[in-house]
Amino acid sequence: MIATMKRGSVVVDVAIDQGGCFETSHATTHTEPIYFVDGVLHYCVSNMPAAVPHTSTFALTNATFPYLLELANRGLEAACDQHAALRQGVNTYNGYVTHGGVAESQGRPWRELARVG
Fold first, then answer.
1. Distances (CA, A) of 23 to 38, 44, 74, 88, 91
2. 103 with 87, same domain?
3. Which pLDDT belongs to residue 117?
4. How does pLDDT run across 16-44, given as a tens digit for each residue?
5. Torsion sign over Cα 80, 84, 88, 89
6. Range of 56's domain?
7. Which of 15, 78, 92, 95 could lock onto 74 through a cystine, CB 3.0 to 4.6 A?
8. What confidence score (pLDDT) does residue 39 get?
9. From CA 88, how far away is CA 99, in angstroms rounded?
């Protein structure tokens, strides 16, 4: 798909820390942030928020604080029962890997969170 894009187009890979979004992605740095493939500019800086640490900290805090409140007020089990997003974010619990992607990347078996206990 990159090869079919208009020359001078720009792609920004915000998931480069997790392996990237595009087949042509590879991690870059703030020192050398860009490269071209088929005339398409790629920006794939790992840890992009580091360029604006104060702002990114506030953004992350605003996005995650409501989940923290749910966990503090209800406890893990009840909060996960109420919120699928929290449930999907639990990677390990009670000695088991509870996220399929994490288990696969580590070559370990996994159990659904609902079946651990």
1. 12, 12, 41, 26, 26
2. yes
3. 59
4. 988 899 999 999 999 999 999 999 999 99
5. negative
6. 52-115
7. 78
8. 97
9. 7
